[in-house]
Amino acid sequence: MEAIQAALSQLAQLQVEGQRQLNQLEQKQDRTQQQLDQLGQKVDSNARAIQATNQDLRDNIEDLTSTLTTYAAQAEQDRIALTASVQALVDALQNRFGGNGGG
User: What is the pTM (predicted TM-score) of this model?
Assistant: First the structure.
């Protein structure tokens, strides 16, 4: 009878220990789930920030492209005007000096 009592007592202790370990596992699982939730929120937040940054970069690239296109067009107009001015000066000098080596 004492052996049965000892076995029952040991079984009760094992049950208490098992319940304690189960409680610890549940607490760890809860903490892990909280951490996963927090990380998920951070990932979502970072993804939104990256998306906003990418949009800003696209906008800036479009603005820069537009500006460079405008500068290139203006540079072409300036080149044409300068070429015309130089040609006018050459023509004026040729007319003045007659193209005959002095005059």
Answer: 0.57
Distance CA 53, CA 20 (A): 49
Convert the pLDDT of each residue in 48-74 to its tens digit. Answer: 999 999 999 999 999 999 999 999 999
Residue 76 has pLDDT above 50, yes or no: yes
The residues, ordered by sequence, that sit 6+ positions from 82 with a Cβ below 8 Å of its Cβ are none
CB 88 within 8 A of CB 82: no
Measured distance CA(80)–CA(99) in Å, rounded: 25
3-state secondary structure of 94: helix
Helix intervals (H) in the chain: 2-97
